[in-house]
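Suppose you are handed a protein chain with no further information: no name, no annotation, nothing but its sequence. What can you learn? This example shows the usual starting point.
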Amino acid sequence: GGGETLLRALWVDTTHRYPLEAMACLNDF
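A reasonable first move is to predict its three-dimensional structure. Written in structure tokens, the prediction is:
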């Protein structure tokens, strides 16, 4: 759906701005 694309875009933006924090979030799963 459209929300899925929006979330993905937000995630990509986040990983580019805060790569270390994004990796920490991934490691939590």
